[in-house]
Amino acid sequence: MVDFPVIYNSSERSFDALGLAILEEAQNIKIRQVINGDYTLSFAMPRGSEKWDVIKEEAIVVVFGQAFRIRTFDEVRDSTGKLISNIQCEHISYDLNDVKHLPDMSDIINVSPMQVFWDGFTNENGVQISGVLRGTAFTFTSEVSGTCDLFLSRCSPRAVLNEFINKLECEVVFDNFNITLVEKRGNANGVQFRVGKNVQTVKRKTDSSGLCTRLYPYGKDYLDITSVNANSLPYIDSPIAGVYDYMHEDFRDYPDITVPADLKLRALNEWSTEEKDGIDKPKVTYEVSLIELSKLGDDIPFEKFSLGDTVTVIDEGLNINVNARVMEYEYYPYEPNKSTVVLANFKENIGGVFAELLKVKNIVNEFTNNKGEVRDNYIESVHNTMNMRFNEALTKKTVVYDYANMWVDDMNNPTSAIALVNGMFALSNGKNADGTWNWRTIGDANGIIADSVVSNWVYAGKVTTSQLQAGTINTSLINLSSSNGNLKITSDNININSNDQSQVVISPSVGVRVVYEKDTAGRPLKQVTLDASGIHRDYLVYNTPTGGWDDWFQYNLPVSVISGLYSGSINASTPFEMLFDGPAFADSNFTTNVMVYPAETLRFARPDGGHVGDVTEYKCSVRSITRGTDGTTVLVDSYKTYVSSIYNGNPVLSTGRLQFNMLVILQ
Questions:
Q1: Do you find a cis peptide bond into 558, omega within 30 degrees of 0?
Q2: 600 within some domain
């Protein structure tokens, strides 16, 4: 096996040949793998490498026999001035996300994974359909028994695979283009993670936020277990419920189950056993960084472990001696001392995503049909239902009026009224001072206007109001603004203005921005921004009277404005000179602070001799900082006296530049 990554054409399907190139210069090669979840590769390459021409999107990189497809890469300059590219890859199995589009996988009843992916199946219309992976580069096998129903549409093979994994509670093994479903991956080979042997650090995490000791299970169409459970109870209690001070109640949906006895059995499987921890125990995980002894030599293969294996973790100091499974595995294939594993004795399907979203899923189910399809428009559904009921009521004896009608609560002393006229309705609960009705709620086919709405639910496509007080707002589009225009909230932006022209903007694109000075045209002059690159104070200059800014200068506070590597001064009499130009550096309201320090490793010559390159003395300091009309000039003395050669056993000394880092802070 090659000891470096090998890159292949994007269309390659066999990786026995040498490929396009061997990436000997690849650095920080890391693979991350999660049971039923992530499987990724990342590494760095020098931008100046001769092999750079073969680094292309979608190309395939093979590491330890597994193929990964390049998805993204960036190019950055590091602190030493070198150009480096960070390359992110996904395992070739991620091709399942777009290798084929499956418009309709609904109403496919009682099918096994082998039928759907390989052998073929019959759809709802009785038409025989080939396995969805036929005709692709993938092969499929399954060691899992059992079948389930599929109600999917507009999906990918990966989505179908996730559906089987979730419903059959199994696991998937990817070996390049070969896919295998298994009940449980991994083995128990007696491997120990022990402090003092192969463990570097251990972190134990306990989480009881999802604890459940009384479970209400529901099947298809709100099927429950009352018909098969003792005393017709709709719930089951955990055998260890008494350990806790109160009953932790929750529910689970199993929409594919139609038989009460099967539903109860499925729910009972949620409790803890000797082999696994269930929902009635806190989730305990162990994050272990370790040295992989099996990679240090062929004579200790018994120390080898893989994703899914059960291992023993021993740390006497933390009182840990447990058996747990390797649920996540992050490793550097060619560096045995940098691996990290996450161990647990519970399993969350699809990399834990479904388990964390169960409650959200159940809310969503209220807006979906029994096939899992989102209704075209929930609001429209409510409207259609009300419309249907109203039309049904009109089939009774109906009187059609072409004049206004009004009903009151008391003919002698009316205090509330409802009126119908010209296709409109109005409601009132009181009168004005002049005796006329105060119609507080008025509506027609175009909408409803009300000065107050009190409701647990409001179904509306658009809400316009001067004041909104709500516990939860669920909407795909948010567009809120105050009457004075000082506050505007959209789906991805919050904009707050004050009467003194200051402004706060919060959005994913700009981060958090505070404008504290504007010009007469309302354009920002000075602002502070917090974004992914740090904290910046922006000093903006506009060269045009009406347009956007043509030029602006940005500097960071309180971190460095300028941070870089410089070549140093030639000698003691000739300092290094640097001009920081721009309005901020010419502004006397700010103080310029400069810090310099050597950027080279200094090895000093010994009194009894030395080597070429050894330093006898050096200087690295700021000589002066001078502000002028063009900016701030900084003079730096940075030089060294070093052994340039050895002649007749004696060192020859020279004086030259000392590379240094400079940090400039503007306050």
A1: yes
A2: yes
The pLDDT of residue 158: 95
Cα→Cα distances 512→299, 492, 533, Å: 56, 12, 12
Q: Count CB atoms within 10 A of the CB of residue 564.
A: 15
Interatomic CA distance for residues 42 and 419, integer angstroms = 69
Question: What does the block give as tokens for 5?
Answer: 């990554």
Does the residue 444 lie in any domain? Answer: yes
Question: How much is the pLDDT for 612?
Answer: 79
Transcribe 400-446 into DSSP letters.
--SS-EEEES-SSS---EEEEETTEEEEEEEE-TTS-EEEEEEEETT
Place of tokens 């502070």: 528
Mean pLDDT by 10 residues, the chain (667 residues): 86 90 94 94 91 93 96 83 90 95 90 96 89 96 93 92 92 97 92 84 88 93 91 95 94 89 94 90 89 66 83 84 91 88 68 37 44 46 52 51 68 79 78 80 72 59 63 64 78 82 84 82 78 67 44 37 60 81 77 83 74 85 90 88 80 85 76
3-state SS string for 324-365: EEEEEEEEECCEEEEEEEEEECCCCCHHHHHHHCHHHHHHHH
Q: Rounded CA gap, 591 and 584, in Å? A: 10
Q: Judge if 497 and 419 occupy the same domain.
A: no
* Six-digit token string for 237: 């209690």
* 416 occurs within a structural domain: yes
Domain hosting residue 539, numbered range: 479-554
Q: Which of 265, 262, 311, 258 is nearest to 288 (CA)?
A: 311
d(CA 120, CA 134): 9
Which regions of 477-533 does DSSP assign to beta strands (E)? 479-481, 487-490, 493-497, 503-507, 511-518, 524-531
- Count up the domains in the chain and report the number: 7
Mapped onto helix, strand or coil, the DSSP state of residue 609 is: strand
Produce one character per residue of 392-409: b if its CB has 16 or more CB atoms within 10 Å, e if not: eeeeeeeeeeeeeeeeee
Instruction: Assess contact for 263 and 312: CB atoms under 8 A.
Output: no
